[in-house]
């Protein structure tokens, strides 16, 4: 670290560098654009299915391909590329994502859709890395991470409403994806207000920093938690149908759950410093397992509603504590850069793994699998704590 960087690090909130509030807000918006699709998939992919562009199986492939591509893109950009020329990188990634969204709008086959969404996912992952690279440099990474998930969820809610009420009814799925491309192009203005170069974190032997038992256990714990959510969320409608709850009602539950996610993110941002991350992750993992088992028990309408709202709340409430877990596991903060990849891989693999257990029209194995994944997340946290204590990290 140079003398000037050392002086900047004295400025309290940042380990290295000293971005302004505007620069921080710009970076968080750029990362949020990369994750808009997480809240828009039910609207946009649902429209593709309704219009007959894809079958149910093909729809699952499109969604999974994009999720995995986001995870790969975020990991590759964060781990392999230096945090330099971030304005140009943001600009190129936004233009690439806009192009992929236009390609999606005019794709004529399921294979073309998979290709377009894979390209989109790689660009989206790169945009996520623009944000996580800066978050990793903050002394208050958990709080900044809370701001990040709050901003992205608010943006998802607002854009989902606009697409559902205006773009998709008037122009179909194509109009929805073109609108998403327009958001990317408008965000080019923001791209030129991000810090151009991030001050360096120590990254010597960065892969070795992640290839340790504490870091691997921490990332696997995060992966398993999001595998729980991905499994239940993907099959929420057929699970509801099995117990006599119609698709329209489940759709209302999804919308309400998005609002609960915003509340969860805001609550975590306010309370993250007051709650020990080990207690928070353990408690939320147990709550997740109980909610999953309630879904498997044949719940009535009121219990189903409660489960959907609780799941929405805990999904993003846990994120700041997972960031603290990753920081504790790897003091060089390299593992923090892989948190989005672990989350997204979990969201992508969860539905695929759970689908292997479905027996005909019986979807009970899905929430049972989700409960096991949530408990595995807690178990892996326990392994992390045991190993980290031996090494004097907790």
Summarize the model shown.
By secondary structure, this protein is mainly alpha-helical. The protein has helices at residues 3-9, 21-34, 36-50, 56-80, 86-106, 110-135, 141-186, 188-191, 206-210, 213-234, 236-242, 247-271, 277-296, 301-317, 319-329, 339-355, 365-390.
Overall 3D shape: globular
First-last Cα distance: 27 Å
- Taken as a percent bin, the fraction of beta residues is under 5%
Portion of residues within helices: over 70%
The sequence of SSEs as H and E is HHHHHHHHHHHHHHHHH
Mean pLDDT: 87
Rg is: 20 Å
Number of helices: 17
Largest pleated sheet: none
Question: What is the topology?
Answer:
Blueprint: H1 3-9, H2 21-34, H3 36-50, H4 56-80, H5 86-106, H6 110-135, H7 141-186, H8 188-191, H9 206-210, H10 213-234, H11 236-242, H12 247-271, H13 277-296, H14 301-317, H15 319-329, H16 339-355, H17 365-390
Helix pairs in contact: 2-6, 2-7, 3-7, 4-6, 4-16, 5-6, 5-7, 7-12, 7-15, 10-13, 10-15, 10-16, 10-17, 12-14, 13-14, 13-15, 13-17, 16-17
């Amino acid at each position: 670290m140079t003398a000037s960087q050392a002086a900047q690090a004295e400025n309290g909130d940042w380990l290295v560098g000293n971005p302004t509030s505007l620069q921080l807000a710009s970076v968080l918006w750029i990362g949020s654009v990369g994750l808009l699709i997480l809240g828009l998939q039910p609207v946009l992919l649902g429209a593709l299915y309704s219009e007959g562009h894809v079958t149910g199986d093909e729809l699952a492939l499109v969604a999974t391909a994009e999720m995995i591509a986001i995870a790969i893109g975020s990991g590759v950009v964060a781990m392999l590329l230096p945090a330099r020329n971030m304005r140009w990188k943001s600009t190129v990634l936004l233009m690439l994502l806009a192009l992929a969204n236009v390609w999606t709008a005019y794709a004529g086959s399921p294979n073309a859709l998979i290709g377009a969404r894979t390209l989109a996912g790689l660009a989206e992952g790169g945009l996520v890395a623009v944000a996580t690279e800066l978050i990793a440099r903050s002394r208050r990474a958990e709080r900044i991470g809370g701001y990040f998930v709050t901003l992205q969820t608010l943006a998802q809610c607002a854009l989902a409403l606009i697409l559902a009420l205006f773009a998709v009814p008037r122009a179909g799925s194509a109009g929805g994806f073109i609108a998403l491309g327009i958001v990317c192009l408008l965000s080019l203005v923001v791209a030129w207000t991000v810090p151009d170069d991030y001050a360096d974190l120590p990254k010597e032997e960065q892969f070795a920093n992640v290839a340790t038992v504490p870091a691997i256990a921490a990332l696997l714990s995060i992966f398993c938690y999001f595998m729980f959510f991905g499994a239940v969320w993907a099959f929420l409608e057929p699970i509801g149908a099995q117990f006599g709850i119609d698709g329209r009602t489940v759709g209302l539950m999804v919308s309400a759950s998005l609002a609960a996610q915003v509340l969860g993110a805001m609550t975590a941002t306010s309370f993250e410093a007051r709650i020990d991350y080990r207690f928070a992750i353990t408690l939320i993992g147990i709550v997740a397992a109980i909610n999953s088992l309630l879904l498997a028990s044949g719940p009535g309408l009121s219990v189903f509603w409660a489960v959907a709202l609780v799941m929405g709340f805990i999904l993003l409430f846990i994120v700041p504590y997972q960031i603290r877990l990753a920081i504790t596991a790897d003091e060089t903060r390299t593992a923090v850069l892989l948190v989005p990849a672990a989350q997204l891989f979990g969201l992508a693999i969860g539905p695929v793994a759970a689908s292997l257990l479905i027996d005909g029209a019986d979807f009970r194995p899905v929430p049972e699998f989700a409960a096991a994944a949530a408990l595995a997340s807690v178990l892996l946290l326990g392994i992390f704590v045991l190993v980290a204590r031996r090494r004097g990290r907790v």
